[in-house]
Known about the structure:
alpha+beta, four-stranded antiparallel beta sheet
Amino acid sequence: MKTLYLDCFAGIAGDMFLGALLDLGLDAKEFLHTMEHVVLFPEREGGTGDTHSHDHGHTRHHDHEHPHVRETDPHGHVHGDDILKISVRQGSKAGMAGIKVSVANLEDHPHRGLGDVLAIIGASPLTPKVKERASKAFRLLAEAEAKVHGTSPEEVHFHEVGAIDSIADIIGAFVLVEMAGVERVVCSPLNVGSGTVKCAHGVLPVPAPATLELLEGLPVYAEGSPMERVTPTGALLVKCLADEFGPLPAGRVLASGRGLGDRESDIPNLLRAVLVETPDNGEEDRFRRDRGVVLETNIDDMNPQYYGPVMQMLFAEGALDVWATPMIMKKGRPAVTLSCLCLPEKEEELAAILLRETTTLGLRKYPVDRLKTDHEIVERETSWGMVRFKVARLGGEVLRANPEFEDVRRLSREFGIPLPEMRERLLGDFLL
């Protein structure tokens, strides 16, 4: 099995991802040929991809600049100015060689919505898998932006990520993953950086608001001089591609590559990618795997009303699960074992909450290996509108699907149907 490992010790951005995968030895000529046939202005070209091709003659270590999109005005005339130019060149950071990919964008103030971007993807001759992944990525981004701005995904106007260069970064990433034949992606914890970043809404703290939404549930830390190290595009790619987080998986190294960023820092601004041949263990590989830490303590002298708020605090700070187990301690005293499951990067932060917010004087911790289903949230049209379903798979087999409780509750109130009945009706629509 081909496993891609992303070492995000300096963060991740779209251009860094493209460079790292091309530096694995992928065919840049094939990549650019695929990208030149993406219709970036379907609203102007009527969904037809008036494209052109060149003999690139590119090798891994040669500079390459590739203009590929022409602009048409409202009257249908073709302008000679290029809107987009992709360059692939060899470079170095801190003495380490790698690939720098630049997507030049000459657009002024792009403000595309979700529908505009989906039209770009739909009008392209990309493979169904790439189209599916790219569409899912932008829907996820729209949801994050909508949450930040208090609106709906359909009303969101992408700013930085709506520009042609960012769209090309995201589509190009899925193209390269398919070219590499990647079957599984493992990612290190993300160094998100610190300080501030200037964006469409002013100067904001790092991570930027939409980036922070995309990072929900992912392992992060901040190290090095102040700068934005994980961009919205980088966070989006990790969110969509990473099957698990942890160290470099065991296996045979097939290739390694480095994608170079634009910034200078005390930590080299590059993303390291490693392609690993990992053992195919048949039935075992049906599972998603990661490692966690369990923190637990026995408490026999705390007001039971305090457990609820403490558990909410733990979830808010990144706990994967929290539970309380009744028990009997010495001298027959009733007590509670309070347990918290988290990623290793979160153990100190969550341990501090347990020690500060409960009456305990100490904790136990132990590592655990987790086996999980491959699960995702999908949207489906039902008799009551769009509903989100959590679908669990094992080895490609669908085990179960459940409508998201918030959607069930909302529709139950809207249509006056009891919660259990509404859930069964929605599930029936999903199975159809």
